[in-house]
DNA sequence: CCCCCCCC
C-alpha cells in the first residue's frame, strides 16, 4: 500500500532554498511536547516532531492550535495535513511553524522508520550547518494563500497586490518574522503606543516612539526614529489594524521590553504602513495574575492584572535617584475577589491625568511586580491599561464588587508582619500577613535579628496546667511586675512596695496547630484570659482551694483563633530558638484565610 | 540610534 505521507517533504524543507509553493503536505506526528518557554501572552507552546515516513523534522504549532493538543486531537501518530505553515531557519536548524492544519483519518500506527535529517546532514558534512546559518532561509507555505482568500471573502482590499504599489512579499505571521528575511508584510493590530520621546546623547539629538503589534500568532515591538516618527506616529493609532512591510527586523533587547518576541521591528525610510479595515485580527490578549497570587511572582517580573480600583491616592511627586529628575506619581489600590489588595503606581503623564472616581475595573497589561510592602505593582513604559474593558473577567469583577466586594475587608500585602510592628494600640491597623505554622518555620520567622510579626489561624491543642501564671504587683495603677514573697509580704522591687497578696497574671503556654504543624506559644494576661474565659487570679484561687481546675483548660482546648504572633530569637542552652508570643487573639477571619489558602494551593503547581 | 521606568 502506498504511504499516505508526502514523501520527501522533510528533505525539501531542509535542503531547499525555496519552500514548496502551495504544497500542503500530509505528515505524521511522532511526538508532541510542551516546551518550557511560554509564547506570546504567556500561553503554552508545543513542539512537534513530524515525519514524512523517511525523515523527521521539528515543528512548532501556533498557539491558536493549542486546543488541538489539549483535546488530544493532535497527538502521537496522528496524521495531519499542513494547510498553513512557514519554515524558519535560524542557527542552521530548520523549524516548521504550523499555522493551520487538518487531521487526516488514520489507524494510529507509526509509518516507516524515519530518521533525523539534521543529524545525518551534520555528520555527513561539517559545512552543512554553517552554510545554513550563513544563508538562512524562510519561506511561506499556505499562510499567505489562506489570508488572501479569507480577505477576499470578507471583501477587504487586502490582497497583496492591493496593498501597495510595490511587491513587498507575502503576508507573514508575526511569529514567522526573522532578521534573515525582508520580503514580508504583516497584518497586525497596534496594542500599545508610546509617547514620543526626545533624547540627546553623544550621537546627537533625536526622537523616537515604539508600538507593539499583535496578530493571531504573536506580538512584536516596533520602534521608529526621527522621520519615522513624523511619518507614522499619528497614523499608528492604538487598537487599529495595519499592513506593515519593508521594515528591518532586529534581535530584541529583551531587557528593555516585556514584549514576547525574540525580534523587534525597526521602521526605516522605505517602510510602508497602511491602515487595514479587516477587524479579524485579535485584540489584546491578557494572561491575568490574580491579586492574591502575586506572591508567586519574582520582583521585577512583568504580568497582567485586572482589578477594581478601590482607592485613588492624590498626585504626588518623587525625585529619581538616578537622574535627579522629578516624576509625578499616583498610587491606586486594586482589589479582586481573592480578598487581597495591592498598590499600583502610575507615573508621569498617566499619573497626572488618571481619573477614576467611580471604582472602575481596569485591566493592566505588562505591569511590573515590586516587593515594596510585600508586593506592589508599577506601570511600565510598555504597560497598557484598559478601563472597564468588555471582557468576561471585567464583568465578573464588576458583579462581584457591586454585590459583595465593596463590603469586603481586604488583606493588604505587607512585609513580614511590619503592619503590626507598632504596639497593639494601632486600632484598625491592617491585619498582618497570614502564615501557616509551616510557613512561619520554613521562613525562619523570628530567627533573625529583627522581630517578625505574622498572623496564624490555628487551633489550641493543649494548654499547660502546671504553671499558668505568675504573682504580679498588686499596684492598682498597673505595674504587673513579678513580686516575691519574702515571708512578710509580696515585694515589688519596681514600685518598692509590699502587698499582702499578689495578683496572679497569666503566662500561659499553649500548643497550637494548623494543617501544617504545631508550635508552642506564650500568651500573657489579656490574651490568655480571652482564651481561658477566667482570670488567672480566680483560677489560682480555685487551685489554692484545692478545686479541680481542669475544666477551663479543657474548655479552652480545641478552639480556633487568629493569633497575632510575634516571633523573636531566643536561646536555650546556648541553642538559638524562636520564642513565639501571642499579642492578640481574635476570631478567625475566614475571608482572608481562604485567600491565603487558595494562594498556597496555587503555589502547589498541580 | 532608545533602553529611564523612578519614591517610600
From TrEMBL:
<dbReference type="Pfam" id="PF08646">
    <property type="entry name" value="Rep_fac-A_C"/>
</dbReference>
<dbReference type="InterPro" id="IPR004365">
    <property type="entry name" value="NA-bd_OB_tRNA"/>
</dbReference>
<feature type="domain" description="Replication factor-A protein 1 N-terminal">
    <location>
        <begin position="12"/>
        <end position="104"/>
    </location>
</feature>
<keyword id="KW-0863">Zinc-finger</keyword>
<dbReference type="InterPro" id="IPR012340">
    <property type="entry name" value="NA-bd_OB-fold"/>
</dbReference>
<feature type="domain" description="OB">
    <location>
        <begin position="184"/>
        <end position="265"/>
    </location>
</feature>
<dbReference type="InterPro" id="IPR013955">
    <property type="entry name" value="Rep_factor-A_C"/>
</dbReference>
<dbReference type="InterPro" id="IPR004591">
    <property type="entry name" value="Rfa1"/>
</dbReference>
<comment type="subunit">
    <text>Component of the heterotrimeric canonical replication protein A complex (RPA).</text>
</comment>
<feature type="region of interest" description="Disordered">
    <location>
        <begin position="112"/>
        <end position="168"/>
    </location>
</feature>
<keyword id="KW-0238">DNA-binding</keyword>
<protein>
    <recommendedName>
        <fullName>Replication protein A subunit</fullName>
    </recommendedName>
</protein>
<keyword id="KW-0479">Metal-binding</keyword>
<keyword id="KW-0235">DNA replication</keyword>
<dbReference type="Pfam" id="PF01336">
    <property type="entry name" value="tRNA_anti-codon"/>
</dbReference>
<keyword id="KW-0862">Zinc</keyword>
<dbReference type="Pfam" id="PF16900">
    <property type="entry name" value="REPA_OB_2"/>
</dbReference>
<dbReference type="Pfam" id="PF04057">
    <property type="entry name" value="Rep-A_N"/>
</dbReference>
<keyword id="KW-0539">Nucleus</keyword>
<comment type="similarity">
    <text>Belongs to the replication factor A protein 1 family.</text>
</comment>
<feature type="domain" description="Replication factor A C-terminal">
    <location>
        <begin position="453"/>
        <end position="597"/>
    </location>
</feature>
<dbReference type="InterPro" id="IPR031657">
    <property type="entry name" value="REPA_OB_2"/>
</dbReference>
<dbReference type="InterPro" id="IPR047192">
    <property type="entry name" value="Euk_RPA1_DBD_C"/>
</dbReference>
<dbReference type="InterPro" id="IPR007199">
    <property type="entry name" value="Rep_factor-A_N"/>
</dbReference>
<feature type="domain" description="Replication protein A OB">
    <location>
        <begin position="291"/>
        <end position="388"/>
    </location>
</feature>
<comment type="function">
    <text>As part of the replication protein A (RPA/RP-A), a single-stranded DNA-binding heterotrimeric complex, may play an essential role in DNA replication, recombination and repair. Binds and stabilizes single-stranded DNA intermediates, preventing complementary DNA reannealing and recruiting different proteins involved in DNA metabolism.</text>
</comment>
Amino acid at each position: 500500500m502506498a504511504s499516505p505521507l508526502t514523501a520527501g517533504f522533510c528533505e525539501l524543507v531542509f535542503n531547499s532554498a525555496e519552500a514548496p509553493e502551495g504544497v500542503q503536505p500530509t505528515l505524521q506526528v511522532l511526538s508532541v511536547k510542551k516546551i518550557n518557554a511560554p509564547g506570546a501572552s504567556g500561553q503554552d507552546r508545543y513542539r512537534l516532531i513530524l515525519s514524512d515516513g523517511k525523515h523527521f523534522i521539528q515543528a512548532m504549532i501556533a498557539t491558536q492550535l493549542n486546543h488541538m493538543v489539549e483535546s488530544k486531537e493532535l497527538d502521537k501518530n496522528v496524521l495531519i495535513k499542513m494547510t498553513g505553515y512557514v519554515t524558519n531557519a535560524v542557527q542552521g536548524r530548520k523549524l516548521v511553524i504550523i499555522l493551520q492544519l487538518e487531521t487526516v483519518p488514520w489507524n494510529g500506527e507509526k509509518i516507516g522508520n524515519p530518521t533525523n535529517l539534521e543529524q545525518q546532514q551534520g555528520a555527513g558534512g561539517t559545512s552543512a550547518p554553517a552554510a545554513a546559518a550563513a544563508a538562512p532561509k524562510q519561506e511561506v507555505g499556505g499562510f499567505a494563500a489562506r489570508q488572501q482568500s479569507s480577505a477576499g471573502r470578507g471583501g477587504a482590499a487586502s490582497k497583496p497586490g492591493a496593498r501597495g504599489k510595490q511587491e513587498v512579499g507575502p503576508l507573514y505571521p508575526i511569529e514567522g518574522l526573522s532578521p534573515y528575511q525582508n520580503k514580508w508584510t504583516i497584518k497586525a493590530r497596534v496594542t500599545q503606543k508610546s509617547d514620543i520621546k526626545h533624547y540627546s546623547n553623544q550621537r546627537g539629538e533625536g526622537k523616537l516612539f515604539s508600538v507593539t503589534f499583535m496578530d493571531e500568532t504573536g506580538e512584536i515591538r516596533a520602534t521608529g526614529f526621527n522621520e519615522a516618527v513624523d511619518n507614522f506616529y499619528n497614523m499608528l493609532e492604538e487598537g487599529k489594524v495595519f499592513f506593515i512591510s519593508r521594515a528591518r527586523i532586529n534581535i530584541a533587547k529583551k531587557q528593555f521590553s516585556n514584549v514576547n518576541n525574540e525580534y523587534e521591528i525597526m521602521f526605516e525610510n522605505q517602510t510602508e504602513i497602511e491602515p487595514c479595515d479587516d477587524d479579524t485580527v485579535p485584540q489584546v490578549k491578557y494572561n491575568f495574575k490574580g491579586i492574591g497570587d502575586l506572591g508567586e511572582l519574582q520582583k521585577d517580573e512583568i504580568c497582567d492584572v485586572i482589578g477594581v480600583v478601590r482607592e485613588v491616592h492624590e498626585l504626588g511627586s518623587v525625585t529619581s535617584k538616578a537622574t535627579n529628575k522629578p516624576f509625578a506619581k499616583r498610587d491606586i489600590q486594586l482589589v479582586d475577589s481573592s480578598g487581597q489588595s495591592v498598590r499600583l503606581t502610575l507615573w508621569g503623564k498617566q499619573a497626572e491625568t488618571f481619573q477614576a472616581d467611580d471604582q472602575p475595573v481596569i485591566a493592566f497589561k505588562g505591569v511590573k511586580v515590586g516587593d515594596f510592602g510585600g508586593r506592589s505593582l508599577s506601570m511600565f513604559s510598555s504597560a497598557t491599561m484598559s478601563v472597564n474593558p468588555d471582557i468576561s473577567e471585567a464583568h465578573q469583577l464588576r458583579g462581584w464588587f457591586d454585590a459583595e466586594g465593596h463590603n469586603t475587608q481586604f488583606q493588604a500585602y505587607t512585609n513580614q508582619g511590619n503592619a503590626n510592628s507598632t504596639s497593639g494600640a494601632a486600632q484598625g491597623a491592617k491585619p498582618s500577613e497570614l502564615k501557616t505554622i509551616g510557613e512561619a518555620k520554613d521562613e525562619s520567622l523570628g530567627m533573625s535579628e529583627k522581630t517578625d510579626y505574622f498572623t496564624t489561624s490555628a487551633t489550641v491543642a493543649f494548654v499547660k496546667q502546671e504553671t499558668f501564671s505568675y504573682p504580679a504587683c498588686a499596684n492598682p495603677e498597673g505595674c504587673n511586675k513579678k513580686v516575691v514573697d519574702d515571708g512578710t509580704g509580696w515585694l515589688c522591687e519596681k514600685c518598692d512596695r509590699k502587698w499582702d497578696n499578689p495578683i496572679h497574671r497569666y503566662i500561659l503556654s499553649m500548643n497550637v496547630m494548623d494543617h501544617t504543624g504545631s508550635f508552642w506559644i506564650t500568651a500573657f494576661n489579656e490574651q490568655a484570659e480571652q482564651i481561658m474565659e477566667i482570670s488567672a487570679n480566680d483560677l489560682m484561687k480555685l487551685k489554692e482551694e484545692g478545686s479541680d481546675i481542669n475544666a477551663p483548660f479543657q474548655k479552652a482546648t480545641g478552639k480556633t483563633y487568629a493569633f497575632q504572633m510575634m516571633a523573636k530569637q531566643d536561646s536555650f542552652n546556648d541553642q538559638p530558638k524562636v520564642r513565639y508570643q501571642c499579642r492578640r487573639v481574635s476570631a478567625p477571619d475566614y475571608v482572608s484565610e481562604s485567600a491565603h489558602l487558595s494562594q498556597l494551593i496555587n503555589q502547589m503547581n498541580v
